[in-house]
Amino acid sequence: MVPGRPRDYLHAHPSRPVLIVEVAGDWKYDSVRLLRRNAVVTPLAAPRARIRVAQILP
Question: Distance between CA atoms of 37 and 32, rounded to whole angstroms?
């Protein structure tokens, strides 16, 4: 997670990401998703858990 908007990084990668989450078993990405602060994620290891993206942002 990085501050700003996706278009802020059109010419260069962010130099200081706040959080990086990798979800790939074999280093191949099937899809990439941009989640907003109000989005909710569910960990595979705890399918009943619901975590708001805003809770894991600084």
Answer: 16
Backbone region of residue 34 per phi and psi (left: phi > 0; alpha: psi in -120 to 50; beta: other values): beta
The dihedral over CA atoms of 15, 11, 56, 46, expressed in degrees to the nearest 10, equals -110
For the segment 1-44, what is each residue's pLDDT rounded down to a tens digit? 777 888 888 898 888 777 777 766 666 667 778 888 899 999 88
pTM for the model: 0.48
> What's the chain's Rg over C-alpha atoms?
13
Whole-angstrom distance, CA of residue 40 vs CA of residue 29: 20
Check if the beta carbon of residue 32 is closer than 8 Å to that of residue 21: no
